[in-house]
Amino acid sequence: MLLKMLAVVTDTTARRAMVAVFLQEQAAQVLRLPTAQVDANKPLHAYGVDSLMAVDFKSAVDAGLGIDLPLSDVLQGVSLSKLAETVVTLMSAPPSQQASNAVAASSATGDAPLSGGQQALWFMHQLAPDSAAYHVPVAVRVRAGLDANALKGAFEALVARHPALRTTFVMAATGPVQRVHAELPLDFTTTDAKGWSDAQVAEALSAEARRPFDLEKGPLLRVRLVSRSSEDHALLIAMHHIVTDFWSLAVMAEELDALYPALKLGKRPSLAQPARTYADYARWQAEMLAGLAARRWRSTGVSSCPARCRCWTCPRTTRVPRRRPSTATSTPPGWTRPSRTR
């Protein structure tokens, strides 16, 4: 419908306005927000868009307008209104001048390259394999009856749905790769903590949150349920940041909210299968960096995060230093707050 309307509108300003509204609508769907809450004068990264969300937005725009919008244009930090100008220009350009880098879905299992951010996390793990600096733990107190079997089933469904939760990281002939397994057992344990104090529960959960992950063997998700009584539980979810970010945690919470109640009633909800995986994005990034786009980026001296996301699972936008003084120690960033699964 929009393409038909644009075909009869010749005024450039009107065309930009129509495209801007379309971009707002697509952004709202990706962000799961009402369209009215998406400001066309703000960039996507202002809403905390991560890599996969950016890819979904690009794919929706490409499909709706019949173009191939470069992902780097999506995440340059410009407003949606400004991005609409780029889209209008692309729609007017010959097909040969449009970008040709689309993110395609591929097999749900097998080996894939590491993204730039994952390479950094993998390297830091080699330097300090016992460090908990890149663990992402979330603990909640549940003061209600809890069905441990249904909860375990909900997490098993999550692992089956999201390949990132079935991924390990191994050294291949070409370097480190992420290996997506068809199956990977869930690390879920329950503890009878009758008579434990709050301090004892906190100490036990803290120890599990800090316990090192084995990137080669996995799993990189662990779930601990500590129960002091039938109405008093503490739940710990801990993951390594190489397979998750804060948006992923929000997706996990959202899906648990659908899975657990259904399984508790003996039902199984129907959730839409994720269209792409983080491994798909990593493959796309590797292919792009090996092509012409990489030569353009390197010539500018800028390493651009395709998502400008607020996590270390993707490379942030930074100026590449020509020379960097060495330091005696390196202090990894800490987490200030827990806050989707790839």
Describe, in plain words, how this protein is organized in 3D.
The structure is a single chain. The chain has 342 residues and is α+β, with helices and mostly antiparallel strands. The chain has 2 domains: 2-97, ACP-like (Non-ribosomal Peptide Synthetase Peptidyl Carrier Protein, Chain A, Orthogonal Bundle); 110-264, Chloramphenicol acetyltransferase-like domain (Chloramphenicol Acetyltransferase). It has 11 helices and 9 strands. A hairpin with a 2-residue loop joins β6 and β7. α2 (12-31) crosses α3. The longest helix is centred in the N-terminal third of the chain and has 20 residues, at 12-31. The radius of gyration is 22 Å and the shape is globular. The model is unreliable at 96-101 and 302-341 (pLDDT under 50).
Which descriptors apply to this entry?
342 residues, alpha+beta, Non-ribosomal Peptide Synthetase Peptidyl Carrier Protein, Chain A, Chloramphenicol Acetyltransferase, 2 domains, 4-stranded mixed β-sheet, 11 helices, 9 strands, globular
Biggest pleated-sheet summary? 4 strands, mixed
- β-strand amount: 15-25%
Gyration radius, rounded? 22 Å
Spatial gap, N to C terminus: 32 Å
